[in-house]
Design a protein that fits this description.
Shape: elongated
CATH superfamily: lambda repressor-like DNA-binding domains
Strand content: under 5%
Distance between the termini: 76 Å
Helix content: over 70%
Order of helices and strands: HHHHHH
CATH architecture: Orthogonal Bundle
Number of helices: 6
Radius of gyration: 22 Å
Number of domains: 1
């Protein structure tokens, strides 16, 4: 079970683009203690079970299930969220540029009055 959970922890961490150190800080443990969890050498993941599920925004059964399909679904959802976030950022940048242009136009019009 430790190896199964460890592999999932590694996949979840990478899907979130987080380092082992960042996860360890969140769990208030050392980076090496977290690395042992990912390698399946430690059972301490059970102590941090709720915090891990909260961090990765997963249902508890995803972490302990032997079914890899549930994790793959989570990874696909994470990819979709990342794409939406990137698109949102681009749209915001475009709106900010447009607002800047409009402010300049308003300023120019006021000067002409």
């Amino acid at each position: 079970m430790n190896v199964i959970v460890g592999n999932k922890l590694k996949k979840l961490r990478k899907a979130k683009n987080m380092s082992q150190e960042e996860i360890a800080d969140y769990l208030n443990i050392s980076q090496s203690a977290y690395a042992r969890m990912e390698r399946g050498e430690s059972t301490s993941w059970a102590t941090h079970f709720n915090k891990i599920c909260a961090l990765f925004e997963i249902k508890p059964e995803i972490l302990v299930s032997k079914n890899e399909e549930e994790l793959k679904n989570y990874e696909r959802e994470s990819d979709s969220v990342e794409i939406v976030n990137q698109l949102s950022e681009k749209i915001i940048e475009q709106y900010e540029a447009r607002i800047k242009e409009l402010k300049k136009t308003i300023k120019d019009l006021k000067r002409k009055e």
